Amino acid sequence: MTPRLRFAYCLVFLLTAASAPAQPLPSQSSANTLSAIRFWTFPDTTRVVIETSSEFEFRSDRVPNPDRIFFDLPDTSVRLEKKRHALIPVNDPRLKQIRVAETQPGLSRIVFDVEDSIAFTASRLTNPPRLVVELRKGSVSVPEPSREFSPPPSAARLPATGKQEPVLADAPPVLPKSTLPPVAAVAVPVTTQKARVTLPPPPKAARVDSSQSMTRVLGLKVGRIVLDPGHGGHDTGTIGPNGLYEKDLVLDVCRRLGALIETRLGAEVVYTRLDDTFIPLERRTEMANHEKADLFLSIHANSSPVAVTSGVETYYLNFTDSKAALELAARENAGSARTVYDLKDLVQQIALHDKIEESRQFAARIQQALFTASARVNLKTRDRGVRKAPFVVLIGAAMPSVLAEIGFVTNPKDEALFRKPEFRQKIAEGLYQGVSRYAGTLSQFQVAQN
């Protein structure tokens, strides 16, 4: 089987996981915890993800008048922001609200108050363990998706006045409280001393052949960079064992990185979000294309069921049959509105992506500098290398684009480091070094490395 055919089968699995019928697992001997509920609203679908601490059984049923669907998780306790119950307003065309409670000790019930004639599918996924529920109008066939995008939401910039411009995207009514200080209040120190660092050789996976891309042949410069803090709004991303939200962490790092780029590199920085707002994955690269950006950098924090896992890694868009890369892509792609119908189009977009080589070189320099910066403080961190995976947030980008995983929030020691502004600044410095070194390879002109 060719790598592309293997990839296509894997992508089918990722896209259809939320509609596959779920089979109960054997009962668990240890207690489970319901730790987070996230939802996404799309034109034809509402997707809800129920996250737990370990594998679980569940049963589902529905009750009429009023119409509601419920899921029971035995041997599972509720711990949503340290509460045993919750009411989550949704108010979209299919789902009114979600209610969560322990109906008796060790039995958690999740109730969906739905509109009339709503069909649902549910499936269980792993790494991390979660129940994925999709709601659709029961008697309505899925229409052919439009190939035309509506006008993108305005990208966010930091104007000279220091005031934030709003990101035009819908935010849900209830958001988790931020786990970091307000990002706008964080001072970003700019060092002037030139760094003297002996760097390791580039990762083997990132070495390139002697061919020159048109970007290099034409000596193109980097004048505008889009920074994409992952997740946001009701999509918290990974939650650390002591409550640190990925969405808050990466927004803070992005703000710090943007200040460094503007001050030292002199490039314009555009943000996909500047506050706690949810932006759909497809909109993020659409915004970068609309802004005619030269580079796109999406910043995330990783998760693992093994608490001691540590390290940094950088991804670019390409085919892969790596199980670990596909599992990470499945987690990050949970908020995508893509369906199985889009499979052919997605494969073609990846296969024809003429920025793969430049993205690989961009990823190599980001990874090298990011690891060096992290290892100065975190001696246990690992260089997990440059990897390729089918991230929806990178598909369709018209410029070199990469996704950086700056560490594992699920590692308690790493989480403690990420809570320190000094460490977040070090990570931003490392990312800046990667950006500036890549920009410096595109022409004979040198850029600031301080």
List the helices and strands and how they pair.
Blueprint: H1 3-16, E1 32-41, E2 46-52, E3 59-63, E4 68-74, E5 76-78, E6 85-89, E7 95-104, E8 107-114, E9 118-125, E10 130-137, H2 214-217, E11 224-229, H3 246-265, E12 268-271, H4 281-290, E13 295-302, E14 312-317, H5 323-332, H6 343-351, H7 356-377, E15 383-389, E16 401-408, H8 412-418, H9 421-440
Parallel strand pairs: 1-5, 11-12, 11-13, 13-16, 14-15
Antiparallel strand pairs: 1-2, 2-10, 3-4, 4-8, 6-7, 7-8, 9-10, 14-16
Tell me about this structure.
The chain is of the alpha/beta class. The protein has 2 domains: 20-137, Immunoglobulin-like (Sandwich), CATH 2.60.40; 183-318 and 353-440, 3-Layer(aba) Sandwich (Aminopeptidase). The chain has helices at residues 3-16, 214-217, 246-265, 281-290, 323-332, 343-351, 356-377, 412-418, 421-440, and strands at 32-41, 46-52, 59-63, 68-74, 76-78, 85-89, 95-104, 107-114, 118-125, 130-137, 224-229, 268-271, 295-302, 312-317, 383-389, 401-408. Strands 12-11-13-16-14-15 form a 6-stranded mixed beta sheet, with helices on both faces. A 5-stranded mixed beta sheet has the order 5-1-2-10-9, with no helix packed on it. The chain is globular.
